[in-house]
Amino acid sequence: MIPEALFRHARRLLPTALFAFLAMSVHADEIVLTNGDRLTGTVISKTPEGLKFKTPYAGVLRIDWRMVETLTTDEPVDVMLRSNEGRLDTRLQRSEEARTVRLAEAPEVPPLKLDRISYLNPTPSQSGEGFEYKWRANVAGNSVSGNSETTQLAVETEMNAVGKTSRYSLRIKAEERTDHGVESASNYLASADRDWFVTKKNFIYARTTVERDPYRDLSTRASAGSGYGLQLIDNDQTGLSVKGGLELVRENRVETDDQNYPAIGWGVNYRHWLIGRSAEFFHQQDGYMNARDSRDVTLKMRTGFRLPIVERLSAQVQGVLDWEGLPAEGRKSADMSLQFGVGYEW
């Protein structure tokens, strides 16, 4: 039997708990789907890929916009219409007309067709007001002692900025290796890329790189070029772009003769999240071929996986290939390595 004092205490708390529950229910966005289902939570954003909706019971859902019948938001959202028709911060209210919504801050406007909404809460790049920046830093290395004594450290940082009609990236990487206390490798690479979109999938690019690797008889190699590219896929799940153009290359060698030459350049950038976003596969390739000698090919390629650990932190494994079709005397064409490291994004 429940003690009377405990019963009286619970009876006093019940109205408070009920009020809190009702308050949480009121302060929530609601989506009505075309099949009649209702979802409560918080509208995050709407893009051409669909609606992002955060729920307390299933996390962030990605909903096909065509499946939304109408919706209600408790707080104002940034509504951006198609074809530069307008933009407004307003709460959304349910409409009885099929696939429409009412604008609370513009009651004189008739119910707005959902197909006219291009974005909800657009990012700076989606609205054309600026760039979104993403940084990534990776550190990989190992140390072996005993019968052999080797150490390796590879550091890489990358910045990507995305705007509505252009994007650019900067990348710097450096590697040091020692064998029994004697340096066996020391190199660095810095690159910068800029893309200008002329259509949604077509862009013109410019890029430049500077690298140094004296153990491959390379004091410095600098290249600059431009060309044409295609963004074949670009969404949250997958990205794929290819590009090709003309380069000018200058090589300063340690032992052999320096040279300058025009080249045909190319690039491939691919990423894909595996099922459940458990891991991200990536492949990046940049290269150019001497226009005067097709045997003289320079290729840099890295392929691997990023595995999320906690927010912003991930483990990374990648295979790296540096290839020279005509290496300096006494050197091999290919340098290959397998790197395990940790990455951080912000």
Top keywords for this entry?
five-stranded antiparallel β-sheet, 2 domains, Porin, mainly beta, single chain, 63% strand, 346 residues
Q: Outline of this structure?
A:
The chain contains two helices and 23 strands.
Q: What fold name stands as the CATH topology of the largest domain?
A: Porin
Relative helix content: under 10%
> Largest beta sheet: what is the strand line-up?
12-13-14-15-16-17-18-19-20-21-22-23
| Annotation field: number of helices | 2
Structural class: mainly beta
Please summarize the sheet with the most strands: 12 strands, antiparallel, barrel
* Domains, number: 2
Query: What are the low-pLDDT stretches, counting only 5+ consecutive residues below 50?
Result: 18-25
Determine and state the CATH class of the largest domain: Mainly Beta
- The CATH superfamily of the largest domain is identified as monomeric porin ompg
Beta-strand residue percentage: over 45%
Distance between the termini: 57 Å
Mean pLDDT, all residues:
90
Rg, nearest Å: 28 Å
Give the tally of β-strands. Answer: 23
What is the architecture of the largest domain at the second tier of CATH? Beta Barrel
Overall outline: elongated
Order of helices and strands: HEEEEEEEEEEEHEEEEEEEEEEEE
